[in-house]
From TrEMBL:
Belongs to the D-isomer specific 2-hydroxyacid dehydrogenase family. GO terms for molecular function: glyoxylate reductase (NADPH) activity; hydroxypyruvate reductase [NAD(P)H] activity; NAD binding. Residues 14-313 form the D-isomer specific 2-hydroxyacid dehydrogenase catalytic domain. The keyword Oxidoreductase applies. InterPro entries: D-isomer_2-hydroxyacid_DH, D-isomer_2_OHA_DH_cat_dom, D-isomer_DH_NAD-bd, NAD(P)-bd_dom_sf. GO terms for cellular component: cytosol. It comes from the Eukaryota. Residues 102-285 form the D-isomer specific 2-hydroxyacid dehydrogenase NAD-binding domain. This is D-isomer specific 2-hydroxyacid dehydrogenase NAD-binding domain-containing protein. The keyword Acetylation does not apply. Keywords: NAD, Oxidoreductase.
Length: 321
């Protein structure tokens, strides 16, 4: 949220931005807040207590994922919860671009390139691999997954998408019909993993998707596949990935969201973070200049609604408030 954007709406006298980067800062400053905008922070049930946040009226997630917000506790205390859907903000495009970057980095052995350069090695082995012609399985066909499939099809990959719901339920006027007709459609990993050169996780974390990439799932892949995660860390079993990398069964793992149940930020000193065939990025996939500005505009729309005594346009917990 920028002062320039707030000024452009004539709201400088009505909105004061209070930064609270640490958990202690949040507790110290929460009592004066009417709106809270979490980035990577977690708002548990205690945050929504009348003692801590007596004036709070709205929580707006700066992004899509609300797993860090206790929506039930917010509803019990009459606090509206909102977020910014990826399809509205450029987040889906940004995250898809980052997924392609991570996939390319794995296939082209990015971690080894500085060594080759410093040793004046031109070319080198193993030979870099191309996305073109590869069999890529995308898990999830929501805002991110559908855009990602479009990008991969354009780059010449053979794409299979996994969607939990029935494919004939799709009804999106903005969906590229050419992309939809160019991909293989599956409803389970058992259908989509055999033969895949790469798997990209772009689905939400739910009880059903928790650790969907485990020893059993990895065993369905051919040797030397790579796994990319732009969904959530707990979609993947830490031990399963570690074992598969150390035995050479998997060629690489790249993630923008960590791995397993370890909260982000992931420990840079962890053995997996130091593995030569692993890349971690600090949850930056959905943030670009375009998406950041669009998200700020949408969040300010919600804040303006609350200031004017209106309902936020995106109201996640509407029935309970």
């Amino acid at each position: 949220m920028t002062s320039r954007l707030i000024e452009s709406r004539g709201l400088l006298e009505q909105i004061e931005i209070v930064h609270a980067p640490t958990d202690q800062d949040i507790r110290d400053k929460a009592s004066c807040a009417h709106v809270a905008i979490p980035f990577m922070q977690r708002f548990g049930a205690d945050f929504f207590s009348p003692e801590l946040t007596p004036k709070l009226r709205l929580v707006v997630q700066f992004g899509v994922g609300l797993e860090g917000v206790d929506i039930g506790a917010a509803s019990e205390n009459g606090i509206a919860v909102s977020n910014v859907p990826g399809s509205m903000s450029g987040n889906a495009e940004a995250t898809s671009e980052h997924a392609v970057f991570l996939l390319t980095s794995m296939l082209r052995h990015l971690n080894d390139l500085p060594r080759r350069f410093s040793e004046k090695c031109l070319g080198g082995l193993p030979v870099p691999r191309s996305i073109y012609g590869k069999r890529v399985t995308v898990v999830g066909f929501g805002a991110v997954g559908s855009v990602l499939c479009k990008y991969l099809v354009t780059m010449g990959a053979h794409v299979t998408a996994v969607r939990r719901n029935k494919w004939d339920d799709i009804n999106d006027d903005n969906l590229d019909s050419q992309t939809l007709n160019s991909i293989e459609r599956a409803q389970s990993l058992e259908e989509a993993l055999p033969g895949a050169d790469a798997v990209i996780l772009a689905c939400a974390l739910t009880p059903e998707t928790y650790q969907i990439v485990n020893e059993s799932a990895i065993s369905l892949l051919p040797r030397h596949a790579v796994i990319i995660n732009v969904g959530r860390g707990p979609l993947v079993s830490y031990s399963a990935i570690s074992d598969a990398l150390n035995t050479g069964y998997l060629s690489g793992y790249a993630s923008d969201v960590g791995i397993g149940d370890t909260p982000e930020p992931f420990d840079p000193n962890d053995n997996l973070a130091k593995h030569p065939n692993v890349i971690f990025t600090p949850h930056v996939g959905g943030i670009t200049d375009y998406s950041h500005n669009k998200m700020a505009e949408i969040i300010l729309d919600s804040i303006e609604s609350v200031i004017g005594g209106k309902q936020p346009s995106i109201w996640v917990n509407r029935p309970g408030v």
